[in-house]
Amino acid sequence: MDPIIRLLLIIFGSYLLGSFPSAVIISKMFFGFDIRTKGSGNMGSTNAMRVLGWKWGLLVQILDVLKGVLAVSLVNFLFNGEMAFSNQTPFQDITVMKMIAGVFAVIGHIWSVFVGFKGGKGINTGGGFLLAIAPTEVAIAFGLFILVVMLSGYISLGSMIAAITIPLTMFLRHNIFSVEIPGYHIIIYFTILISLIVIYAHRSNIGRILHGNENRFSKFQLLKFGKK
Questions:
Q1: What predicted TM-score, i.e. pTM, was given to this entire model?
Q2: Closest by CA position to 131, among listed 174, 217, 67
Q3: Which residues have C-beta within 8 Å of that of residue 2, sequence separation ≥ 6?
């Protein structure tokens, strides 16, 4: 298969994977309503947990994470670890393709073609594809996410801090602690891009946090203060 066609298949395939509206489908199939009409109106796992219960919310989260993992797997399937392109960059071909796949999966989740280009925030799908590429950074970001949520109750704040933590951790590990990270010089730029996309998707949450009216996930919050 022509490499250009395979590249296009990765772009569109990853976008369509990311666009799969897990929460919307589950809410309509098993509850008889569109989750976008309940709670915050978002189709992410946080709203799913709040509206459908933690078990269904966890299922939505797993499915959203898998979208990112499958996008990276699509690259391995189509290119079998290598590419036929004449590489004009100093980066590994396969690493570039994996990052492109991940970015388009996140874009698909945030601007899903199946739900009028209004989707979730992209944190789970972004975490899914980065888990397949940078598991150490994702593990550290996840730990910090849990800590922020337990202290503040804000899922959105924890998500944004986790998104920022991934490229920051990668930068520190590679440049300060001299850890060799395969494909670092391309991955770091893509992780920064993903972080910016995730923060942009949370722009309404930022406004609500600053005004003190963002919803807290009080079940996970250890310190109770401010509005609930």
A1: 0.84
A2: 67
A3: none
Q: What residues does each domain of the chain span?
A: 3-85+92-220
> How many Å apart are CA 7 and CA 143, to the nearest integer?
34
Q: How many CB atoms lie within 10 A of CB 87?
A: 10
Give 169's contacts (C-beta < 8 A, 6+ positions apart). 136, 137, 140, 141
pLDDT digits (tens, 9 = 90+) for 13-46: 999 999 999 999 999 999 999 999 999 898 999 8
Question: Is 201 in contact with 110 (CB distance < 8 Å)?
Answer: yes
What type of residue is 108?
G
Q: How far apart are CA 160 and CA 166, in angstroms?
A: 10
Instruction: Compute the radius of gyration of the chain from its Cα atoms.
Output: 18
Provide the H-helix boundaries in the chain: 3-19, 22-31, 45-52, 54-79, 93-110, 123-133, 135-152, 155-175, 184-201, 203-210
- In tens, the pLDDT along 169-212 reads 999 999 999 998 877 888 899 899 999 999 999 999 999 999 98
Is residue 107 within 8 Å of residue 68, measured between CB atoms?
no
Helix 54-79 to helix 3-19 angle (10° resolution) is: 180
